[in-house]
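Q: How would the C-alpha cells look for this protein?
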Amino acid sequence: MGTCPIVVDKEKRSYILIRILLVSFFLAPFAVGYFKGNFSEEKYLEIKVLDVGQGDAILIKTPNSRKILIDGGPRGDIVEKLPKDFPFFNCKMDVLLATHSHSDHITGLNSVLKMCAAPLFIINDIGQLENVPDEDLRITQGFSGDKFSLDGVNFYILWPPKGFSASDINNLSIVVLMEYAGFKAVFSGDAESGILADVVTNDIDFLKSPHHGSYDADLESLLLKAKPEVLAISVGKNSFGHPSSQVLGTADSAGVKVFRTDKDGDIVVKVRADGKYEMK
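A: Here is the predicted structure in C-alpha cell form.
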C-alpha cells in the first residue's frame, strides 16, 4: 500500500514549533537539575598557602566551603587576595587562627577582622591586635590537646603545652595537625623543627616549612621521622637568606618535593574524599 505525504501548512508548522519550544523551555531546568545531580563536580578539601611575601597566610576550605585562615601575612593587602574565594565579596571565616604574634604572621589579620565575619578566633597573644574584635567573635587560646572539627576535617593542636614559656616567640607558635580522609598536613608557624620532631608522631603528607625555610639543624631528623611528600615554603624577598640552601638540600636528599611561594605563587593542594591529592 502506498504512503500519502502529510502536508502541514505554514501556520500550523509555526504553531507546532512554538509548542515544542515552550515545552523545551519549561523542561530544561529539570533536565539540567537531573544531570547536575548525577554528574556533580567532585568536592575537595583545599589548602592554599597564599603568596603574601615574607610571611605566612594559609586559607583552608573544607569540601562544603567552610573556611579556616591560619595567619594573615605581613601586610593588610591579604584582603585583596580573599575576595576571589568568597561569593559576592561576602567574607565569612569559620575559624581564624594566629600561630604567634610576629608581625609577618599577624599584621594582615587586623585587616581581615575589619572585612570578615568570624565566629571563632584562636590566638594566644591578643595584645598584638590593633582591632578589638566585636562581641560576636569568640576568642580562645589554643594549647596541646585542643581540637576542633569542621565538615569532617579534624584539626589537632600539637603545640604549645599550656603554661609553656620561651624567650624565642617562634617557639610559642601554635602547631596544627589537620587530618582528612587519611591525608595529614602540619602547619608549623615558626616553631623549630626540634619541637616539631617531638610532637609529630606519625607520617604526614604535607608540611608547611618552619620559619620560611630558614637554616634548621633539626630539619633532617624531622623529615626522616614525619616523611612528608611536600614541603611548602612561604617566603618572599628578604635579607635573611630564606630559604636556606641547607633546607633545600636536606629536602632534596630526603626526596621531599619543595614548593615556594616566591617561585610558584599561591601553593594549592586539593584533597579528594579518598585522601588522594593533587598540587596546583
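The chain has six helices and 15 strands.

Helices lie at 10-38, 103-115, 193-199, 219-226, 245-253, 261-264.

Upvote if useful.
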